[in-house]
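Take a careful look at the protein record below. Let me know whether the structure tokens fit the sequence:
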Amino acid sequence: MTSPVSVSLRDRIAIATIDNPPVNAASQAVRAGLKETIERLGADAAVDAILIACAGRTFVAGADIREFGKAPMLPILFEVTAAIEACPKPVVVAVHGTALGGGCEIALAAHARVLRKDAKLGLPEVKLGLVPGAGGTQRLPRFTGVEKAMEIVSSGRMIDAQEAQTYGLVDVLTEDDVVEAAVALARSRIGTPLTRTSDRAVPAFDAEAAKRQLAEIDRKARGQISPKEAANLVLAAPLVSVTDGIKLEREAFLRLTHSEQGMALRHIFFAERDATKVDGLDGVAPLPVTTVGIAGAGTMGAGIAVAFADAGYKVIVAERDTAAATAGKGRIDAIYARTVKSGRLNEATAAERLSRIDVRDTLEALAPSDLIVEAVFDDLEVKRTLFQTLAKIVRPEAILATNTSYLDPELIADVTPGPDRVVGMHFFAPPNIMRLLEVVRCARTRPAVLATALALGKKLRKLPIVSGVCPGFIGNRIYAMYRRQCEYMLEEGATPRQIDEAMEGFGLPMGPFRVFDMSGLDISWAQRKRLAPTRDPKERYVSIADRICEAGHFGQKTGAGWYAYENGERKEHAFVRGLIDEAAKARGLPQRNFSPEDIRIRLVAAMAKEGAQVLREGIAQRASDIDLVFVNGYGWPNWLGGPMFQADRIGATRILAEIEAMQTRDGPGWEADAAITDAARNGTPMFSTE
């Protein structure tokens, strides 16, 4: 097998070139080839200096993801970086593109670094639930100082070449050929004392300030353990030798590799890669879109307009009259004003993006649009009437997208002369911020139209997940089962606060009843009233939320909902306590004390039950797509891996027992899918394909 590391000699300077497309990942073959090359060249009397460079579009941009979860294969990367640093001859790296993870650690171990001006460095391991494993946490602070190194490794962010230069990480910054510049630097270092990173002292730092910084890192991590682990390793750098520090780093790396969080984060990483593989779209090119129309300038319409403008599109927003258009323009202006105030945009950039949005007071203004997204009230007849009107205004080839969150887009498509150009694009609020985009494939949606919606989602820097047609699509359908079990537990002895605290202790940033109050109870109440005529009379139905709304309590915005809000404090709502007691008495179920684990497992089981049916019906293509929906649209932290991942961690036997109890207690609609019963019988995962 040909090694991915080749060597050429130029005037006694050896150029070791890594060629492992597409991103020169530090695979076992690269590690072995590089270590052998460095050790051989270090002993070669015909070589005075060594240059490490990469072919293709980037320097080493991380680990080989195919090795994730497998037994370590020798040599380990820290052995490679040790060989580089220990080499008796100058070792210079030539960095273009990105040097991430192991690539950054190779650069840190070298004796000198040459970077192109557009290059970037980074140690993103915390995003996979890990820490750097080849000396990154020990060598970086010797350049940047402890405080800055803690920030860089705990966030996993990239730093550009200019920032790296301010820390002394860059010996030469060039706009020209990075290899030529590195050859020149290597030649200048021949015969001079080597500058090994390990010999550099860690700059003095304020220990108390670092301790406060560590606490802030832990707070921002919201339960994820790898950022604090990485920061603690940086704090160890001034106290131990690099060799001992790397031993500590390696121990933490291996521990986190096998941790629940590490497995969950890698699951999400691979899930995002898999989500791009959509059935039926092989070889299908997206249609060109330059102008986007938005029908409706309410809260959602304004946010969608901003999302498209931020991505560089010309946007036309249409409202029904001048007053509505003026109000919509005000909402868009306010979004950009808040963004500038927060420091996320400067005024010039905000003004430039705002100039891309044209708010008009007539639907006819949407005529030039290549794609129109409707963002009007979620009522079927309102949307059908709008689509009938749009079909007469826009070009026959223009794509019509509905932002409905619950309604059947097939019924909306029915009123258009070209139902094959209709697709669902369900944005999550606030749409200019939330990453999830459910792209709903109708039975008649043309593949090119679906491909276009997905491509637009990526350009908006969102995560588009394809859903089939059903009430609520993937997310809201499964979330409805989660909500129902939350309400069922109220009739059985639990309180809103107990359930919230159990789920927050599990890792969710907010418990369900806090979320309900923040979102507003009136929206879901309206939806329940619309569905009431079709509700199965045998279905267990909890009316507590309806009665709260009937009393005019819609959550935080009215000062009361599931909780009472007084002077900025959230308190138990005595009115709701009375409703719960009445409902429990009427239901006649035995009252019980719920532990946090009881609550967590019951809610995960409810989601697993519905998720299995969503998969069975082809609404979601894969279980990991469901996990992505909840991580990116419903507040699940990525280090939990999502509800389907968690269900497999709990195990099919326990999940099945919970669902069977639901079926007995709660009636129709709570039957276990065959995927769950089969997994329980065979002792296999319900959803994982790993």
